[in-house]
Amino acid sequence: MPTKHLLKIEDLHHSFGSNQVLKGVSFSLNKGETKVIVGPSGTGKSTILNNIIRLVPPDQGKIYLEDTEITATKKINEVRQQIGFVFQDFGLFNHLTALGNIMVGLTKVKKMTKQAAAELALNELDRVGLKEFSDSYPSQLSGGQKQRVGIARALAMQPKLILFDEPTSSLDPELTGEVLKVMRNLAEDGMTMLVVTHEMGFARSVADELIFMEGGHIIEQGDPEQLFTEPVHQRTREFLFQLTDLYGEGGA
Amino acid sequence: MGQIFSQYYPLFLHGLGVTIFVTIISCFSGTVLGTLLALGKIYGNKFTSRLVTIFIAIIRGTPLLVQLFIIYYGLPGYGIRLDPILAAIISFIINSGAYQAEYLRGSIQSISANQLKAALSIGMTRWQGIIHIILPQALRRVIPAWTNEFIYMIKYSSLAYVIGARELMTEGKLLASRNYQFFNVYLVIAVIYLLVIVIFVYLFRQLEKKVTIP
Ligand SMILES: Nc1ncnc2c1ncn2[C@@H]1O[C@H](COP(=O)(O)OP(=O)(O)O)[C@@H](O)[C@H]1O
Ligand SMILES: [Mg+2]
């Protein structure tokens, strides 16, 4: 390894029964980079993210977080603390307030005191612009607010890297902007992020690299602008243009 | 009727005390057993899950009275002799646990798997996720079913009279066989059960309101 990657994925394979989903995927992220993965639905994007934190352990291939081989470690819970995950459907804990959602990981996993956890949680809520919603329950928040709580929850664990699985896909169009804005700020603050999204405006303006996947393979990856303007593969052009038609250029 | 009560109220109150004691212990312990069974069925391996299914099927498929007799009259054959109240409590816990396991299973499964995924994603163990995320929600949702279970249990606890546990029904029967006022005695008993049930239903409604998540 010439350069030291924060996340390195080597030859990832995964099948669900006879459905071969990932057929050898490799890529890496350096510290501070944001990479965006796009591709048609069912192509294995979520599977990659789930493989990374072993919510679904991969069949074959290696994944490293710095020097730790995630695919081999016995301390997966420690690895998961270092990798944030933001879900399409938010994954908020419905019985806890916004503040409680963020605190529970700090008190139960990191064993922080209630007071220290509350202080940190409030800071993270402030960072996503939701300080005044700390006592609201998930059912009392809009989709965009829920997702921002989800991001704050991930942030509070002080991860080295955050994975986003279509963070704006369950949102009404008018609510995607507030979430994308938070993500853009994170990228600017130097957070390392791997983002599955169809928001091409976000990809073009924020991503260091765009990865286009189809059929369990990476078809093409590179500078987003280049993939849009002069892709090597005709298929990349077709897909990206189709996406832009569907979702527009919008997004932060 | 009022006269019967005022004349013999220590008997009735003693019986009522035993009834409520047996019911509360059985119901709460039944919840603990039911929770363990439900968790074993949902999150356990194939073997555990199968075992729990069979256990629940047996308990729900046989009369409570038969279970009570096996424990009270059957176990002494193996050297285990139990006090009637203890025998009643044990058989009620087992019975209630099996029923509550089914309520809880439904309730646990109605909480989206995504919340457990989210819990794992922040580094919780599976067990932490179940304890801190899944159960607090599942137990809230099960309160209405649990209220019904409690009402059944108060009434079923009267079955303990057949093995001579001195709960409300037994006290009534003993009294009636002495003073021959069957109608009045059993009427008093019916009214006591009714009052107690009304009060507990009210208390559980309050509890439900208090812990409801917005
Ligand atoms: N838990 C699962 N069990 C079986 N099949 C699954 C499971 N999760 C995903 N799949 C299948 O794997 C394929 C890839 O899914 P996914 O990674 O979610 O794709 P994407 O996120 O790119 O839309 C799909 O065909 C999907 O049906
Ligand atoms: Mg997906």
UniProtKB/TrEMBL annotation, chain A:
Signal peptide as annotated in the record: none
InterPro entries (alphabetical): AAA+_ATPase, ABC_ATPase_HisP-typ, ABC_transporter-like_ATP-bd, ABC_transporter-like_CS, MetN_ABC_transporter-like, P-loop_NTPase
Ranges for domain ABC transporter: 7-240
A Gene Ontology molecular function term of the record: ABC-type amino acid transporter activity
Keywords, ordered alphabetically: Amino-acid transport, ATP-binding, Cell membrane, Membrane, Nucleotide-binding, Transport
Membrane topology field: Peripheral membrane protein
Taxonomy, superkingdom: Bacteria
GO CC annotations, alphabetized: plasma membrane
Keyword Transmembrane helix among UniProt keywords: no
Family from the record: Belongs to the ABC transporter superfamily.
Protein name: Amino acid ABC transporter ATP-binding protein, PAAT family (TC 3.A.1.3.-)
Lineage: Bacteria, Bacillati, Bacillota, Clostridia, Halanaerobiales
From TrEMBL, chain B:
Source organism phylogeny: Bacteria, Bacillati, Bacillota, Clostridia, Halanaerobiales
PANTHER family hit by this protein: GLUTAMINE TRANSPORT SYSTEM PERMEASE PROTEIN GLNP, MEMBRANE COMPONENT OF AMINO ACID ABC TRANSPORTER
UniProt entry tagged with the keyword Nucleotide-binding: no
Recorded GO MF terms: transmembrane transporter activity
InterPro entries cross-referenced by the UniProt entry: AA_ABC_transptr_permease_3TM, ArtM/GltK/GlnP/TcyL/YhdX-like, MetI-like, MetI-like_sf
Gene Ontology biological process terms in this record: amino acid transport
Protein name per the record: Amino acid ABC transporter membrane protein 2, PAAT family (TC 3.A.1.3.-)
SUPFAM superfamilies: MetI-like
Organism: Halanaerobium salsuginis
Topology of this chain in the membrane: Multi-pass membrane protein
